[in-house]
User: What shape does this take?
Amino acid sequence: MGVVLSLGDGKRAPASIARLVDLTKADMARVNELILSKAGSDVEMIPEVANHLISSGGKRLRPMVTLAAAQMFGYAGEKHVKLAASVEFMHTATLLHDDVVDESGMRRGKRTARMIWGNQASVLVGDFLLGQAFRMMVEVGSLDALDTLSAAATIIAEGEVMQLGVAKNLETTEDDYLQVIKAKTAALFSAAAEVGPIIADAAKADRAALRSYGTNLGLAFQLIDDALDYGGNTQSLGKNVGDDFREGKVTLPVILSYRRGTAEERDFWKRAIEQNESGDAELERALGLMNRYGAIGDTIGRARHFGEIARDALAPLKGSPQKSALLEVIDFCIERAN
Assistant: This one.
């Protein structure tokens, strides 16, 4: 079961990453300094585009996971800071690239970089950040950490290409979709968690535990994002509710609704997703069908399942403040849907 924080009146406190933030605060200050310095360039547009997204209020969850995972195994050096910054640069680069591929207009409540500077600048600055990430990995001097993060970069790119293959394809199965998000989202969470024990010279079993934790946390995180696109609000999403629908994305709520619907309802989904008939009226009908067939609730249920796998992955590890904080991250990610 999840970590339950009890309030004085008997109510359950909402899940929080406050403990993770507190444990990694000093290290994250150094990570943030490094990020700002490494985003600099004599080419004027590069720091402008990079800082637009870097300073836009993201939680920096992935680098905090890297730092906490290193702390958990007693690491006391400096190299985890560069690895955490590398993880954040990889994440930022994928966001810049994603927004181009998805033709997105908003990210974290702000206009996307592509809307301000154009697609070409977004792609090229993303490439610059990836290059800086790999330079920092090399400076760390751990071939295992470099191998783990570079493998993740390859898998993320494969996930993006897989997503193109299932775009607007309503014959996509749930298994197909899970493969996409395992590559596109979960791979970086997995690598972010695993490089912590790597740099701390932890045992292979500990590396495997953190790798599994990260993978399943990433799956849960993405599935909740999918549910929130239909059941959240613009303020919490940082984008417009229904953007996935308007962009014709085949996410799990759509897959479940399509497969469970009548022939007439499947025709509606084909018009909406494949033929771009996705206005406000169509969005309202899509929401009605998702509610009828329990698609949003079941998507959240799938996320809870992967959250429990992430929790079980850490179960054999000895208790520590970092372990408790990483367990709370699971609850925080899933309870965004409440």
